[in-house]
Amino acid sequence: MKLQWKTLALAAALTVPGLAAQADPIVIKFSHVVAADTPKGKAAEYFKKLAEERLKGRVKIEIYPNSQLFKDKEELEALQLGSVQMLAPSLAKFGPLGVKEFEVFDLPFLFDNYQELHKVTYGAIGQGMLQKLESKGITGLAFWDNGFKQMSANKPLHTVADYKGLKMRIQASKVLDAQMRALGSNPQVMAFSEVYQALQTGVVDGTENPMSNFYTQKMHEVQKHVTLTNHGYLGYAVIVNKKFWDGLPEDVRAALTQSMFNATQYANTIAQKENEEALAKVKASGKTVVYEPTVAERNEMKKALVKVHDQMDDRVGLELVKKIYKETGFDPAKL
Q: Which of 10, 105, 180, 201 has the most CB atoms less than 10 A away?
C-alpha cells in the first residue's frame, strides 16, 4: 500500500506545472576535430544555441572542438559506443567504417561549384547515403560544407610534375590515396590534429585543405606555397548515435531536427564566405605565396586526376558515380 501511495504521489507531482522541467537535462556531447572558429565549429555552436532555446532546459549540448575528446581515428568508435552522442566527421571517415559509398565525395573534380554539390547533398542521393549509416548504429542528420580544397607545400605547385615525390598528408581514404599517387606523390595518412607539427618538422611535405582549415590551424606558418586548385570537396556528415536518437522523446527529437535544419542552412551559407576570408588572411600574413593556376595548368591537373574516377568505380559504386554525373551534368569524356 505504501508503495502504491508513493507511486501516486510521484505521478501527481509530475502533473504539477514546472516540476517536470526540473528533471536533469538530456546531455548531448558534440565532438569535432577542427577549431571553434571554422565553419563547422560555428555551425555546431549555432545548433547548440537554437536547440537549447527551443527546448528550454530539457537539453544541454556540450561542444568539444579541436579534438578535445577524440581524435580522427577514435571519434566514430566513441560514437558507436555511446561515449559521445554527436559528431560531424569528414565524409572520408565513413570508408574505413565500411560505408565506402561516402568516399565518392573524395573523387577529385567531381563538382565544379556549390550548386552542383548541393544537388547531391540536399537531394535524394544524399539522403539515401545517410540512410546507409543506420546499419552501423548511426543516424545521419545532415551534410555540412567546409569547402573546396587547395594544395600546399614548401615548393611551388604549378604543374603535375611539381607533385612528384612529395609526401602529402591525407585522410584515411582509398580515393585520396589514389589521387595523390596519380600526381606522383606519396600519400601519408595522418590525424588532422597532428598535421601542423608534421608539416613543421618535415614529416610530410604538404597537404590539402579548404582555406578555413589551413588558416585556423596556422598551416600558413609552416607552408611556403599554396595553390588554388579547388580540386576536391571537403564536407561533413552530422551524425548521432542511433540508439540514443531513437530513445529521445518525440518532441525533443523534432526540435533537434528543426534546429539541425536551420544550422545546416547557416553552415553552408557561411562556408564559402569563411574560406574567402581565410584566403585573404593568408595572403595578408605574407608567410605563404598564394598561386592561382592558369586554365592550361588546371586542365592538366584535371585530366591527371579524373582518371581516379575509373579506378575507384568498384569501391564507391559505379551506379552511384553515374547518378551523380547525371545530377550535375559532368561528362569526363569531354575533358
A: 105
Task: Please indicate, yes or no, if residue 237 is contained in any of the structural domains.
Answer: yes
CA distance 232 to 301: 12
pLDDT tens track for 124-167: 999 999 999 999 999 999 999 999 999 999 999 999 999 999 99
Q: How many domains does the chain have?
A: 1
Summarised one tens digit per residue, pLDDT across range 166-209 is 999 999 899 999 999 999 999 999 989 899 999 999 999 999 99
Residue 6 lies in a domain: no
Residue 269 CA: distances (Å) to CA of 165, 234, 236, 274, 282: 37, 15, 14, 9, 21
Residue found by looking up cell 548531448 in the block? 28
User: CATH number for the domain including 78?
Assistant: 3.40.190.170
The backbone torsions φ and ψ at residue 64, rounded to the nearest 5 degrees and listed phi first, read -125, 95
Average model confidence (pLDDT) for the chain? Answer: 92
Q: What is the 3-state secondary structure (H, E, C) of the chain?
A: CHHHHHHHHHHHHHHCCCCHHHCCCEEEEEECCCCCCCHHHHHHHHHHHHHHHHHCCCEEEEEECCCCCCCHHHHHHHHHHCCCCEECCEHHHHHHHCCHHHHHHHCCCCCCCHHHHHHHHCCHHHHHHHHCCHHHCEEEEEEEEEEECEEEECCCCCCHHHHCCCEEEECCCHHHHHHHHHCCCEEEECCHHHHHHHHHHCCCCEEEECHHHHHHCCHHHCCCEEECCCCCEEEEEEEEEHHHHHCCCHHHHHHHHHHHHHHHHHHHHHHHHHHHHHHHHHHHHCCCEEECCCHHHHHHHHHHHHHHHHHCHHHHCHHHHHHHHHHHCCCHHHC
Q: Which cell numbers hold the place of 314?
A: 568498384
Residue 271 in any domain: the answer is: yes
Containing structural domain, residue 294: 14-329
